[in-house]
């Protein structure tokens, strides 16, 4: 099944599949205690607006019921992922494969011309040797001043390993969308239908003309996981900042092939679901920062705009 990778490149384009994984052993000293409790409820899931991406299967809109669950107010941060790595000596897919994708403006200009463009139809993505969660822009970069920023360059496999250690799991798509809506029904965003306030987006998405260098002083990189405004449930950056892995396999027929009670798509399609969009999204190209929008990638793919948050 071919699904457009949108603004997140597919690792399979540049490297063979990784060897069978050995998940981290042991468990965290304490499970995360700051998760937001979402009561059992039903909500309207999917997109009824004309900006739905038909190929992604954002509809039809339907009523979905969920059991009570809890979800993290922010994505997992560099500091939190570092605790996991120190405790388990876990090695991410990007580190094992030797490279990850970095957006071209995050790479020093003198280095860009030396890198072969290999991401099909996505020339702004560069496969940077030794780019990883610890070196988000490749060798010479570091996370020392970004411990409260979302961890990126983590694959779905890496997210699963962290969840197993933390005594948590990834949210299902339905849980993610319910939580992202923050209690609002049928809106594009957690705050309503209009993206901008006072001329600026209310979430951390692309500014200017994508993919050209912005002239506004804004620069394409993640902001701290808890920056910006929280939604009605107290969740931060569910729109923009970084894409977030979900538990489901991805299918464009999700809304037609899953139950209306606690839906979870379990048919192995080769791609896992992602939600939320990222700081690289723009309505002229990747209009997937809406709460009903969907994305996908292979489980071993990673990039400088892809992270995850915990659920239980």
Integer average pLDDT: 90
Radius of gyration: 18 Å
Strand count: 12
Q: Which class of secondary structure composition applies to the elements?
A: alpha+beta
Give the strand order, joined by hyphens, for the main sheet.
11-10-9-12
What is this structure's SSE topology?
Blueprint: E1 36-38, E2 41-45, E3 62-66, E4 69-71, H1 78-88, H2 93-97, E5 99-103, H3 109-112, E6 125-129, H4 156-166, H5 173-181, E7 196-197, E8 200-201, E9 243-249, H6 254-257, E10 272-275, E11 295-297, E12 306-307
Parallel strand pairs: 9-12
Antiparallel strand pairs: 1-4, 2-3, 5-6, 7-8, 9-10, 10-11
Can you describe what's shown?
The strands form 5 sheets. This protein has a 4-stranded mixed sheet with strand order 11-10-9-12. The protein has a two-stranded antiparallel ribbon with strand order 1-4. The protein has a two-stranded antiparallel sheet with strand order 2-3. By secondary structure, the chain is an alpha+beta fold. The protein has 6 helices and 12 strands. It has one domain: paralog of FGE (formylglycine-generating enzyme) (Alpha-Beta Complex). The chain starts with 35 loop residues before the first strand and ends in a 5-residue tail after the last strand. The chain is globular and about 50 Å long. Helices cover 14% and strands 15% of the residues. A hairpin with a 2-residue loop joins strand 7 and strand 8. The N terminus is likely disordered.
